[in-house]
Amino acid sequence: MSPSCTTPNITPVSDADQERLDKAWRAWIDAQEAAVDTVRTAHGVPRTDQDVAEGYRWVTRLVSLAQEWFVEKSDPLHPVLFQLQDEFRKLLVDNPDTRYGLCILDDTRTYRLTGTRGQAAYVGLTFGTPLGQGGGGGSTGTTLQTHLDAFELGEGGQVDILIAPEAALPDPAPPNTVVLPPGTGQLAVRETFFDRRHESPADLRVELVGPEPAPVVRADDLAAKIEVAALFVQFVAATAVTMWHDTAGSVNRLGGTSGAEHVAAQDDEVRTHSNAEMTYHGGRWVLGEDEALVVTVHDPRPFLYWGLTTATAWMESLDYRYRTTSLNNASALRSPDGSWQLVIATRDPGVPNWIDTGGRREGYMIVRWVLADDPPHPTCALVPLAELRARGPSA
């Protein structure tokens, strides 16, 4: 008999558990191949060498994200508020101005959100159902929307918020309280900056109220997590291509509506997870060889923020580390009439507010508004580059 079989408190893995783990692992590998196959076979998307290579890289990023989200940090009894996206891992049109955090919750448990607010213009708190796992027969998406400035913050932006189901609230409840709606399985934190390079981020953490033992890995639990991660990879791959196809009717124009309307409409699981304090205007840009797309953003008043992001067909923001691929109401130069004119072009048009596509002639664009009441859709016009250059830098 092997030593492991005679050691006290060590139980050999059962055949059923081994089979369960092997089945989950096969699903994980198959999901990655299915996602790559989506890249191989997607029709109607740009298919340059760069676009296809980015598609394969995108799948590796989805796999990395799914592993962290659903395997490593998915235990609501040991919550972790982790950074969901960054320069190298992007999900469904990330905003370069936004730092995205996520934490898995249990709607029957009590938590505290603590830390400091930071210097972002807006720190949104979006509570919602688990993404990519359906609504369990009911509604899916955002269950509650708020932001940090709706609470009483302490000196230096200190944050201390109780998050609990209604039945678990103390009487009287403290001033800084979030009543956790039934069905909530996650908290998304969106820190939206005017200048992310120079403004300090929040330092936030989520803690479970009450003691819990250290986590233990079990075969059945791990297998279930791996299977959810596998489903997520395929779900996001298919969703991104669908989003691209949906823009076919919005070429060189911007459509869309408020996040609250997306949540109420229950039209698909991605848009129902919108931030209900934001409005989203999206479309596709397609440029001729010597053309630029001039996007005019009209001042709605009142509002806190707008930002225009350009993205690939895989719904990843263009690489903003080395080029200006997005602008917002603080970083863009304003026109004399109070509007902002942004210029999406493959090369320098010689006028302000150039959004550099890095030579791409086709991609996705979205304008996000924060705390704006029914803002007007930005307008778009194709303009020859020669005409823009003739106007000069004062245009």
Name a few traits of the molecule.
about 400 residues, alpha+beta, Jelly Rolls, five-stranded antiparallel sheet, 6 helices, 18 strands
Structure in a nutshell:
With 395 residues, this protein is α+β, with helices and mostly antiparallel strands. The protein is built from six helices and 18 strands.
Describe the fold and architecture:
This protein is an alpha+beta fold and 395 residues long. The chain has 2 domains: 15-208, no CATH class; 250-391, Jelly Rolls (Sandwich), CATH 2.60.120.600. The chain has 6 helices and 18 strands. 39% of the residues are buried. Mean pLDDT is 95; it is low at 1-7.
Strand % is 25-35%
The class by helix and strand makeup works out as alpha+beta
Number of H/I helices = 6
Give the strand order of the largest sheet, numbering strands 1, 2, ... along the chain.
1-2-8-4-5
